[in-house]
Amino acid sequence: MHAIAVHGGAGDIPPSELTPDREREYRDGLERALRAGQEVLAKGGPALDAVVAAVSVLEDDPLFNAGRGAVLAANGACELDASLMDGRDLRAGAVTGLRHVRSPIELARLVMERSPHVMLAGPAAEEFALEQGLEPVPNRYFVTARRERQLEDALRRGGVVETDQLMGTVGAVARDEHGNLAAATSTGGMTAKRWGRVGDSPIIGAGTYAANDSCAVSATGHGEFFIRAVVGHEIASLIRHAGKDVVSAAESVVLGQLVRMGGEGGVIAIGRDGRIAMPFNSKGMLRGSIDGDGRLTTAILR
Q: Are 105 and 6 in contact (CB under 8 A)?
């Protein structure tokens, strides 16, 4: 039984972000990502290929905060992070501080498969991308007028970002027909962040985690809290050591531990049995899934 879930950010969603037309665009983007991943799974492909396919679609969609359309740092540049993990053998790859790589999730996979390392950062990661044959793009490729306006608003307030906007990150989790799990996450981070800031998305165990004995997790929200709570691994540990199922484990961390810390956001998670959990403690989370029965759903608010 294969299944897949995706997310496209969590936060307090203002009415201007959720007009009927925009809601339809968000749902269409989530559905395209789900179908890209589902196509891989339906052909018997591995979960890892499915999550990369799904996240690549979201990276190319300027509505989401990853790849083209990512938010801008305080210096006006896009700095991109991504990671992925294969539940079969706990292999992982991550990249951070990218400015010229069109698909950060593709580069994260290359780090995993073609290097002895887990994470590469900044110019060194981009040099590795060139060595692997990835064509660089100018940083302006990622910039959209919408994100420029958001940065101007934040800087006008002294760098303070209003909470009523989607917070960071796209991601996918999947289970293939062989029972293998995988997770992938990609983000532009936070509007007006200090350049060089690294959130949870490229941190294995925090924003991304997958292990066949427990679950696969991709997180979205205020990354500093997700790092401190080691959210992905914490959910897996509750399954392994406390006997919780994926739904109760994910809710325990997102609706319990994170709330007590003051952290806002959510996760998508899939258990070794194919059950899907998508809890969030913010007002909304762009999310969708195709379950083991082939039912496709997308949602934004509660």
A: no
Q: Distance between CA 292 and CA 274 in Å, rounded?
A: 7
Q: Check: CATH 3.40.50.1000 for 3-301?
A: no
Q: Which two tokens stand for residue 244?
A: 């919780």
Q: What is the DSSP string of 5-45?
A: EEEEEEE---GGG--HHHHHHHHHHHHHHHHHHHHHHHTT-
pLDDT bracket for residue 164 (50, 70, 90): very low
| Token reading at 250 | 């994910």
297: left (phi over 0), alpha (psi -120 to 50) or beta: beta
pLDDT one-digit tens code per residue, 130-144: 999 999 999 999 999
| Residue 266 three-state SS | strand
Q: What angle do CA 186, 187, 189 make, to 5 degrees?
A: 155
Note the pLDDT of residue 154.
87
Residues 6+ apart with CB under 8 A from 117: 111
Any catalytic annotation for residue 169?
yes
Integer angstrom CA distances of residue 125 from 20, 80, 166, 197, 212? 40, 11, 27, 16, 28
Query: CB of 121 within 8 A of CB of 96?
Result: yes
Q: Which of 144, 163, 169, 297 is catalytic?
A: 169
At 298, list the tokens.
């997308």
Predicted TM-score (pTM) of the model is 0.96
